[in-house]
Specification:
By secondary structure, the chain is α+β, with helices and mostly antiparallel strands. It is 41% helix and 14% strand. The protein has helices spanning 6-17, 21-29, 56-63, 69-77, 88-91, and strands spanning 34-40, 43-49. The termini are far apart.
Length: 102
């Protein structure tokens, strides 16, 4: 969840337009092949593609240990509603799919 103000949301968007190379490399290195973030107001939803056997909780915990990740988390936390020091593993939760139209 982002801070519920237009300036914070704009800064969050800008941060992701200029994502640090180490962050993108780290995401790929834990087994995530693609990632998208969608916004609706201050609600953010992340869509990731990864192998079925990937343990997402473990991957996100590993991601938190990679270079510059803690710095990135502190930076984007300025625009989010989260506790100080929360990692991606604590901010992002897996949703249960209840429907898919094929």
């Amino acid at each position: 969840m982002l801070a519920d103000d237009a300036e914070s949301i704009a800064l969050y968007r800008k941060a992701h337009d200029e994502i640090w190379p180490e962050i993108a490399e780290g995401i790929r290195s834990v087994g995530i092949s693609s990632m998208e973030i969608y916004l609706l107001g201050c609600q953010a939803v992340m869509v990731m593609e990864a192998p079925d056997e990937l343990d997402v909780d473990k991957a996100m915990s590993l991601l938190a240990t990679l270079p510059r990740q803690a710095e990135w988390e502190r930076y984007v936390a300025e625009f989010q509603q989260c506790r100080p020091g929360d990692t991606s593993a604590e901010k992002w939760k897996t949703l249960e799919k209840v429907f898919e139209l094929k």
